[in-house]
Design a protein that fits this description.
- By secondary structure, the chain is mostly helical.
- It has 11 helices and 3 strands.
Amino acid sequence: MLMYFDKCFQMEPMFPLVAFNHEQIKSSVTGGYLIASKANFPAIASCLMQVNQSTLTDLTERLKNGEHVKPTTEDEKLCYQIINDLDHVAHHVQGSKTNRKYMCNEIWTLVAYLGAPSWFITFAPADINHPIALYYADKDLSVYPKVLDHDNRFRLIAQNPVAGACFFKYMVELFIKHVLGVGASHPGIYRNTAGYYGTVEQQGRLTLHLHMMLWIRNAPSPQEVRNKILDPNSDFQKKL
C-alpha cells in the first residue's frame, strides 16, 4: 500500500505509523507464539504466580539505573527467568530496547570473531539535493529531473518520509556494493571487506543516516597501527 502508484498512503501522516505499529504487534505475537508452546504453559504460569513483586520492582529499578545485577537469591533468579522470556519475545520487535540489546550482542560477536573494526563510517545521503530522492517524493512523475528551489525541495522530502526511506535504502545498498565491494567483482575503496555492521538512526530533521563499523581483511589491529606510527624507523610512518 505504501508503494501504491499515486502515493496517497505515503502522504497520509498516520498510515506509516499505524502500519509500523501493526508490524511490531505481529512480531511480538510471533515471538510469544515461539516461546509459549503448549508444553511450556505450566512452567510459565508457575513462574508468573510465584514471582515476588518487591524483588521484581527492586531489580527493575537497579537495571534502569544501569547497575550490573547478578541474580543470587531464588527470587531474583525467578525474576530473571521472566525477564529472559520477555526478551525472547521482544527481540523480534523492531525498535524495542531488547532488539537494540541483541544488536549490541551481534556487534560484540563480530569483534570477537574479526577483531577490532578498521573504520567507523557515518553515511548521510543528501536527499534534499538528490534528483532520485525528489523523484521518489514528487507526485508529478512526468518531468524528470525538475529544477526546484531549496524550499520546495525541502517540503517534498519532509512531506513524504516513505520516499526518503526508499531513497536512503537504495543509496545504502549502492554504497555497500560499489564502495565497500560487498557482492561485487572488485575490491572496495578500503580494500577487501571482511565484515560490516550498520545501524540506522534519525537525524534532527527526521531523515535517516547510517552508522557503520567496517572490518578490512588482513588489516593490522589498532595496536599494531599505533606501534608502527610511533616507530620513527618504520616504513609505515614514512609512507604515512
